[in-house]
Amino acid sequence: MPDHKPESANDMTDSIQDYLQNGPRPELAEQAHVRLLARLDAELPPRAYYDNVPNTLIGDVWVAASDQGLVLIDFDISETALLAVLTKGQRYRPVRDARRVDPYRLAVSEYLMGRRQRLDLPVDLRSLSPFQRSVLLAAREVPRGQVTTYADIAQRIGKPRAFRAVGQALRNNPVPIVIPCHRIVNSDGTLGGYGGVLGSQRKLDLLKLEGVALVG
Amino acid sequence: MPPENTAFPPFDALVETHSRELFSYLWRILQNEQDAEDCLQETFLKAFRAYSGLTHADNLRAWLYKIATNTARNHHRRNSRTPVESMNEDEELGSRDQDPAHVVAAQLSIRQVKQAVMALPEKQRVAIVLSRFQDLPYSEVASVMGISEEAVRANVYQAARKLRSQVLAEELEHA
Q1: First to last CA, chain A
Q2: In CATH, what number does A130-209 get?
Q3: What span, in angstroms and rounded, lies between the C-alpha atoms of A81 and A87?
Q4: DSSP for B113-124, written as a single string
Q5: What is the tens place of the pLDDT at every residue in A16-37?
Q6: Helix axes B60-78 and B11-30, enclosed angle (nearest 10)
Q7: How much is the pLDDT for B103?
Q8: CATH architecture of structural domain A47-112
Q9: Higher pLDDT residue, A6 or A124?
Q10: A 11-30 residues with CB < 8 A to B
Q11: Which of B8, B40, B113 sits opposite A19 (nearest CB)?
């Protein structure tokens, strides 16, 4: 096998060397970049801007929003896990951008410190099924300081026998706290499930924050 | 989706970091602005679809180069145009260079340079552009092209040799 020592750059003539070395004019690359972004915006899933709210009552809370509203609130997970949730099924293109989600971070932070009573933030539930949306919007009507049951939510959406599906829809609530699925409990008065490794404890913390008197 | 321990940057960060360099790369191997731009867009659309299926984030730059190279190859086969007629087409190169020893080379026009570059076999063109002008180490060029490092070296060597002889032929013609 002959030894193909790379020849030095000047073994090509200077004109080709210069021409290739210089490459396209920088404005061309810049214009191509701008048109690329426009094409990606037109053809790829929408952007979801995200950042976290550190050290709240329930730990670090991640907040993600599209141009239309909140798409995800999550806690007790790493950034990588958050990105996995956002990109699952290619629903969103995540972009970490504190400024874009500042209003949401501030509101959530104040709420969890007990300095704010209501969380009337816009939510973007377009990626959900109509059933799931109807369950979440009904759950949103349960006021602070009160709890209700899965069966009651099933009643409210006109599907009284669907309480198990209601439970499932609430377990998959993408925007907890803002849509207060923690206010929905079992008919026998037990707490019922909640997301994350510290699920029930988180649910309890939120209900206590909202002044719900818990027995037992 | 990616395992917990590897850091996958958000897709938009990849676009921001690599789009300009990939455009330069595509421009260099295709010698046509419009083709380079079409392939750039196609490269990132393909990359997005594949991104969530990646299992490791070791060398995303080389991964993007690989997609760009395949895209350019298909584009070139499908749609083989001659290098674009740019406004500066007949501009002489090397006009800054007053050294009489370079005067003959300086008389090559952009058209001739483009023809010389495009006359290279695809593997040689890709190899020389990646290693000499995109500054990828041989190991990465090998991974982008799916050939051995030794084969990369051979392709770069052949490309340089051909460009030189091509240019010498032009020079003789114009002598």
Answers
A1: 82
A2: 1.10.10.10
A3: 10
A4: HHHHHHTS-HHH
A5: 778 888 888 899 999 999 999 9
A6: 40
A7: 46
A8: 2-Layer Sandwich (3.30)
A9: A124
A10: 11-16, 18-21, 23-24, 26, 28-30
A11: B113
